[in-house]
Amino acid sequence: MELVMKDISKSFKEKKAVDHISLTLNNGIHALLGANGSGKTTLIRMICGLLPSSEGEIYADGVSIKKQYDIFCDMLGYMPQHFGFYPNYTIDEFLNYMAIVKRIPKKDAQIRIDHWIKELNLQEHRRKKMKNLSGGMLKRVGIIQALLNEPKILILDEPTAGLDPKERIVFRNLIASLSKKCLVLLSTHIVSDIETIADDIIVMKQGTVIMHDTCENLLKSMEHKVWNVHVSDQEATQLMNQYIIVKSHQVADGVDLRMVSDVKPNAQAIEVESDLDDLYLYHFNEEGDEA
Questions:
Q1: What's the topology of domain 1-218?
Q2: Which pLDDT score is estimated for 287?
Q3: CA-based angle 236:288:266, to the nearest 5?
Q4: Helix 165-178 / helix 135-147 crossing angle, nearest 10 deg
Q5: Percent of the chain with pLDDT over 70
Q6: Mean pLDDT score of the chain
């Protein structure tokens, strides 16, 4: 599968939420990273055909989503951060309804529903009403409906938001396994979700792609920018007002700080290896609301 975005833009009145983005993605896990307001959700809605682009074209294996949307939909699985459902439907009823919407033959639908309900440990809950499900269960149902048509492109918008650490690990492992068969585009601002599973990371800011590379190569851009230092309480206050602080740990004789800075922030500061948290704060320390 090859997903191609050619110079796409989306404007809302005078604001450009997505600004001339060109990307080519193939099978694997592609993480879309950015703060609220970076344009991630707008881009995802454009790829899914829910928002028409103001400029540019999107193709999936040569299929134009503008001109051949029905064909494209058969290739697509989409899990929004918050998906709609009939609250009085049971899990079974909701998934069968979604299979009808996706035009999946009844026999195939039942086989796939049974498989994924077992795979995601929902057998004992399949007759529960949707309105009575926990957040973790709703997320599991959400990803099942996205997988029912065996998509070639799977788009997940904040799939682990609101989940506890154990549930997030389960989802990460599932996403990793799915990437063997399809192209996965994972949008998140939770960096730990992508650090270990993403084949590459697309960093968005103010509607544009500012970086697109492997995690390893992105972190190379943070060399000589991440520092640890042990200082007094008074010095810590001064540094916190001047620099981006990643971590602060109060200890008996002062404060241990991890900071991001283009220059050495303190004579005693020691340069340390960077991670995605450092990169994220370096680029998104003062970002606003979602676009």
A1: Rossmann fold (3.40.50)
A2: 58
A3: 20
A4: 10
A5: 98
A6: 91
pLDDT in tens, 202-216: 999 999 999 999 999
Would you kindly state where each structural domain of the chain is located, as residue ranges?
1-218, 223-272
Crossing angle between the packed helical segments 91-101 and 135-147, to the nearest 10 degrees? 30
In the numeric block, the tokens 């788009």 are attached to 155
Predicted pLDDT at 290: 43
- In the beta sheet, which residues pair with residue 185? 30, 155
What is d(CA 24, CA 13) in angstroms, rounded to the nearest whole number?
Answer: 28
Query: Binning pLDDT at 50, 70 and 90, where does residue 262 land?
Result: very high
Query: Comparing C-alpha atoms, which of 9, 76, 1, 3 is closest to residue 46?
Result: 9
| Two tokens, residue 120 | 């995601």
Q: Which of 213, 215, 217, 228 is nearest to 273 (CA)?
A: 228
Residue type, 187: S
Please choose, from the candidates 182, 135, 126, the residue with its C-alpha nearest in 3D space to the C-alpha of residue 3: 182
Q: Is the pLDDT of residue 198 over 80?
A: yes
What's the DSSP call for residue 212? E
Rounded Cα–Cα distance for residues 236 and 280 (Å): 22
Three-state SS annotation for 137-170: HHHHHHHHHHHCCCCCEEEEECCCCCCCHHHHHH
Residue 258 gets which letter from DSSP?
A: E
Q: Let me know: does 102 contact 149? Beta carbons within 8 Å.
A: yes
Residue 162 confidence (pLDDT) above 50: yes
Q: Report whether 79 contacts 142 (CB < 8 A).
A: yes
The single residue listed with the structure tokens 């979602």 is 290
Alpha carbons 10 and 55: distance in angstroms, whole number: 7
Q: Give the rounded distance of the alpha carbon of 73 from its chain centre.
A: 20
